[in-house]
Amino acid sequence: MTSIVCKDLCKTFQQGDETIIGLDNVSITIERGDFVCLSGPSGSGKTTLLNAMGGLDTPDSGEITIGDVRIDELGKGPLADMRLHNIGFVFQAYNLIPVLTARENVEFVMQVGGMSAAERSKRSFKILKEVGLEGMEDRRPAHLSGGQQQRVAVARAIVSQPTLVLADEPTANLDTVTSSQLMDLLVELNQHHNITFVIATHDIRVMKYAKRLIKMEDGKIISDEAQSQSPIPLGEG
Amino acid sequence: MIIAKKSRIPFNTLFTLAWRNLWRNHRRTLIMLSAITIGVWAMIFMTALMRGMVDDMLLNGIRNLPGEVQIHHPGYRDDPSINNSIATPDEALLKALQGPAVKAWTSRVRVPAVISSERDSRGITLLGVEPAGEVQLSFDLDSIIEGRFLKNSDDTGIVIGAKMAERLETRLGKRIVIMSQDPDNNIADRGFRIVGIYKAKLAGLEEMYVYAGIETVQKLLNLKDQVSEIAVTSDDYRHVESWYPHIKEAAGKELQTQPWYEVDTYMGTMLTMMDGFVLVWVVVIFLALSFGLVNTLVMAVFERIREIGLMQALGMRPSMILYQILIESFFLLVIGLLLGNVLAVVTIIPLQDGIDVSVVAKGMEMMGTSSILYPALQLNDVVLANIVVIVLGLLTSILPAWHAASFNPVEALGKD
Lengths: 237, 416
Prior knowledge:
Chain A is α/β, with parallel strands linked by helices. Chain A has 7 helices and 10 strands.
């Protein structure tokens, strides 16, 4: 079953008098349950592509279809609804709402989605346990380590059972052990819950976890290869 | 399957977020709360003082009219002569005057006259009064500084003001002569002994009004039982509209029945003007406050650009971001209002016995008020201040809230 189809995506940015190409006729199809890594140097367009897929940014031209919905044609409100119900996000940093506890952060998307309090509570405790944060449910982000915060972000991204999780450099601010644990967790979720993961990363050790590795440069896809998921311990890369 | 259900964050979540965000920067929130509290206090306290002053002015004015409703001959207002007198109340009017809203009523003869002592003569307004009714409506017995007030309607003594006694170079127990015209335009005069001297709150009145028994004055002027006016009063001049139509109906179309604000349009205008002034005053203070409020919210929004971007990325609709900032502003306004209201009440209650402003007594007298200022805390003024602060406060908050709601999530997430 097709999860995402991007067709002829173009995106440019203006920086002073200079026009920077973010995406240059990018076309890509990602199947449901895939585990994709977007790699490439800074400015290669991986975050731009990720943002476009997630409906956070609109391309200048081209089409993005998730399931059977053309998200590039949606307005701000419907786009927010689509993100809420179908996509989970994990960002590099500043992932959590600081005034909410770990559990409240996880429950946030379910609350916005209108889920009942009992169901929210049940799911949040279960998912926090699954990501190894049992007993830390009532801590605010300031009282969690960077790794623990990313785990809360992952828990929040998958708790409402989205079809797609987009992660932008999820391990960038983590030490190697924590990064390894986090990636193991993502692979496990991919395998057990059939959630599609698209991860933008610089890190070659993270790329090893991918079933499919897409390399980008200057806004273009320069290679797109399937690979076996053979993670190497992150501490040994 | 792609779900496109509309998101709807419960308001209790928005309240939680707004409340916690409010206290992220304690110091800034407390400073803003202090500003709102003091602003609201100033609105209510100053309004109470001004209301008190206008109340005093109107009460003095109504006492001097006198009464909240007056019944006259239709021609009396244009020509207040003795020829425009009326009969004492008939049965229907008497029944209406005994209604529950009426606190007291009295009949008076009121004519221009000349008062003479052996030293000087002055023009005055001679008031023939029923002492019992007059005391309830107009005359303050505590204002008698020498002698006594009139005992009954046929008392042959006269009561004059202290200033008048000074002008005529006369004193208690001395005789004076009152001269006026009867209905046939003949000179009517009579000697009276001064039985009382009064000191009015407004010194000008002491030179204007001279009191004598109504029957004595009727005899002097050959008026039989005719009177110049019937004055009626209730417990609160503000509610005259509720009862004066009954009096008017009972008095009939042959008589002119008017509430105080028609008898003295200047006083009526004062009350309307005061309502307008209170609104202007409240809005002006709010405008000063609004700059602080907007600044606080703009700062709060700018500090949280990335967080707002994150919430949008997670699927929170822009309208929900707008509501969240507005709720934050609402909390700030409500707490400030509560504290401001409490502070206003706490500072006004100890001043209920009046504030001595005798240092500016001359000026106060010119405005028709006495030298003791009584703050008048009115519920409608408090409600007005609260409504203005809440409504305008939320309207002012729309700008920073709108700004926050219109962030592009990618740009917001990229902010440092």
